[in-house]
User: Fold this.
Amino acid sequence: MSSRQSGTDSIRGAAHQAQPALVVGNQYVRSAALTVANTPAVFALVNGTPPNVRLVVDVSARQLAENQPDFEVTLVMRAQGHVTPGSDAAAAPVSVYEADISYAGLFRVAPGQQENLETLLLIDAPRMIFPAARSLLLTLVREAGFPVANIQPVDFVALWHSRRARA
Assistant:
């Protein structure tokens, strides 16, 4: 019987250790906006080819209540689609759309994770909500009538290091 108790204790210990450091709750759109330049003439410029996309990403986090483990993490993505008109490669690119979304998630940080708080909220949390935010952005662009380009996953570690270097 003692071997069974110790087996149960080790299972409980493993379950306790396997508790995630960060748990995601609700995910939601805070805002979404799309501006299309010079419609309907802009569609002749695009001509079925996906525009080149310049993507700017930012992440912010805020604690919902003092001394509570709950946080809201917001991922802001600004995409500008542009094309080079005609066959002149030296021609200046023309902006065809600007999309701006703010996508957020509610997160709970496990007890004892305070030393990892910044990396959990500014790296791990945005990784969790990025696929949904990217899908929303691409759907917005597609529904505006543009062919969509592929948006690669964001390196949130590099973004975090860049942000720390500027601070």
Observations:
- Residues 117-143 form the longest helix (27 residues).
- The beta strands are 22-36, 52-63, 70-83, 94-109.
